[in-house]
Each structure stands twice: as structure tokens, then as C-alpha cells.
Amino acid sequence: MVEAVSYIRTSSAANIGADKDSEPRQRVAIAGFAKRAGFALVGEFTDQAVRGADPIETRPGFSALLDRIESNGVRVVIIEDGSRFARQLMTQELGLIALITRGVRVLTASGDDLTDDSDPSRTMMRQIAGAFHQYEKARLVAKLKGARDRKRASGVGRAQGRKTLAERDPEMVKLARQLHRPDPNKRPISLRKVSVALAEHGYRNSSGAMFSASSVARMLE
What we know:
Structural class: alpha/beta
Number of helices: 9
Low-confidence stretches: none
Shape: elongated
Radius of gyration: 29 Å
Distance between the termini: 59 Å
């Protein structure tokens, strides 16, 4: 039997609980289809109190589903119907794209294959949705880069990370470079010996110990 996992979504907290029928109904429908179609259910992923319009990437259950798919090779996801996956078409298509790119089929309890690419209109919609998703990603990357560039140009702090050794103590770095290669025509002094010489001049790390060879190497970059 082909292994499959199920995905269940409830749209509000009012549908959650032992006395509610949303989850049990979906579970029964999925199990019935799996048995008829010859699938062995090996996992269940649930998003509770998640609206159909909520973005796919914000759903913890769907994220866990992707992790499972990437880790063990399951390539079939069964849901009750398309509305359980998402009610807005764009949201649904973005989620399907995430699964299609991983080689996954999404089947409903009525036997529909939501990942079937034989419908030209659905294929077109996926292409539009995928292009929009890529645009948004590229826009975010450009926005973050612009913020870093503006902060760097302002001269106020560093855009990211801690200051380099050269920024914290330029005199120490200058001395390290002189100690490393006092004569351009001769072989450079070892990093360990440079560290010892720096310590003799009073230059040590924040712990009071001599700089490691890797730290000296960063000074010389």
C-alpha cells in the first residue's frame, strides 16, 4: 500500500473539542477514502483554529507536514476537500505549489487530485501565484539589503554583527601586521609567535588570554 499522511484544519476555536464534529468528520472521510483507494495513513497533521484565508507559511501544522515530507519521502497528502486546505484560491495555490515542488500529490476524500496539472486554468493560476510569491520574496530581500546599506552609509554602528577587531583596535591590528611580516623579502612570522608578541605588548583578548591563531588570522585579513 502507498503511504500517505492526512491534513486537517478547523477554522475556529468553537470547532475544537471532543464534542465537536469538524475534526472527527474530516478524519472519518479521509480514512474512508484512504481505505478505498489503497493508501496507508502513516501520519496526521492538524491546524486548529486556523482560518481558510490564513497564509500557509504561518500554519504550524502545515510546516510540520512539510518537515515530515522532506524527512521520510511520503508523497501523498489526503484532505477532506479543497476548502479544508484553504478557502482563498491564492492561499490554496501557494500551498499546493509548496507541495508540488516537493513531488507531492494532494487528494481529497472524494478522489479529486488538487495537484493535477491537466487543467490549464489551474496551471495558469499556479504560475501566477508562484511568480507573485517569488516577487514578494525578492522584494523582502531587497528591502532588507536597502536598510543595511542605509545604516552602513549613515556611519551609526554596524548594519549587522559585532565590530571587527580592526574597528575595535586599529593600532593592535596594525602592530599584528607589522609583526607578522617585518621583512617583505623574508618568510612571515607564524601566527602563534605574533600572538605571543602581541601579549608582550599588552594586547590580549577579552578574557585576558593570548589571542588564538585564528583571531590573529582575522586581524591580518
